Amino acid sequence: MGTELDWGQIQQDLENTNTLDELSGVAFRLRAMLGIEHLTYHWVDGAGDQYGCTTYSDTWEERYRDKNYHRIDPVILGCFQRFHPVDWKSLDWSGKVAKAFLQDAQSHGISNQGYSIPIRGPNGQFALFTVNHSCDDETWQQFISTYGRELILIAHYINRKALEFEKERQPESPRGLSPREIDAITLLALGYSRAQVAHSLSISEHTLRVYIESARSKLGAQNTTHAIATALSRGLIVV
User: Fold this and answer.
1) The domain 179-233 is classified under which CATH number: 3.40.50.300, 1.10.1740.10, 3.40.30.10, 1.10.10.10?
2) CATH superfamily for domain 7-169
3) Are 237 and 231 in contact, with CB atoms under 8 Å apart?
């Protein structure tokens, strides 16, 4: 399940998207790269409108919307209370409503393993990035161990693109971090060294230092650790 990801190609593919259909195409290619059955980006806005892209069947997508399942989905309810990625099996599926939902989902091809990354963007935005597959627990944990960090970065990039070409879905954002500053702070928050961050972003360490100092200034942070904590608390980065 999965191969070594070409992160440069993934970044390029995402940067070149300008519509939801193009973002959906990237989702299908990512699914193939990861060797999994499904991949989803799901954003429910303040009005209850649902938006995103998925490799789930059209039948399940339509049923999910028609039934307003986002109001009872244990994944959404559980992730809304968390900031870190969530393995579906750690959620509460014991209730009657949750069990009925799970049975319906599985009858529409939803697999037994799931991993969802909560995304908190500007102005209270909440979205989820999810990967879904059928396998045993040991295989799934190995997959998450191998790709966990990359999945968080992919979630961050997909959400950023969605915000770029669907600005009418959110109020005007105050001046914040630039995309490159967000990338740098996100990678540092994930535990990457400065050398690793520079390599991942294909920039020099000097240029990276400029991004970090600029981010610190905008956030009013005393140091890099303070900048990371502030960015996290404001929902500017996802870890």
Assistant:
1) 1.10.10.10
2) Transcription factor LuxR-like, autoinducer-binding domain (3.30.450.80)
3) yes
CA distance 158 to 154: 6
- Interior/surface letters 122-156, b for 16+ CB within 10 angstroms, e for the rest: eeebbbbbbbbbebeeeebeebeeebeebbbbbbb
CA angle centred on 129, ends 128 and 131, rounded to 5°: 130
Whether residue 212 contacts residue 201, with contact meaning beta carbons closer than 8 Å, is answered with no
Percent composition of the chain: helix, strand, coil (DSSP 3-state, to 5): 55, 15, 30
In the DSSP assignment, the letter for residue 173 is P
In whole angstroms, give the CA distance from residue 197 to residue 52: 29
For 39-87, the pLDDT digits (tens) are: 999 987 666 677 899 999 999 999 999 999 988 999 999 998 788 899 9
pTM of the model: 0.77
Question: CA-based angle 43:152:28, to the nearest 5?
Answer: 65
Helix (H, G, I), strand (E, B) or coil at 91: coil
Give ∠ CA 219-177-185 in degrees, rounded to 5: 80
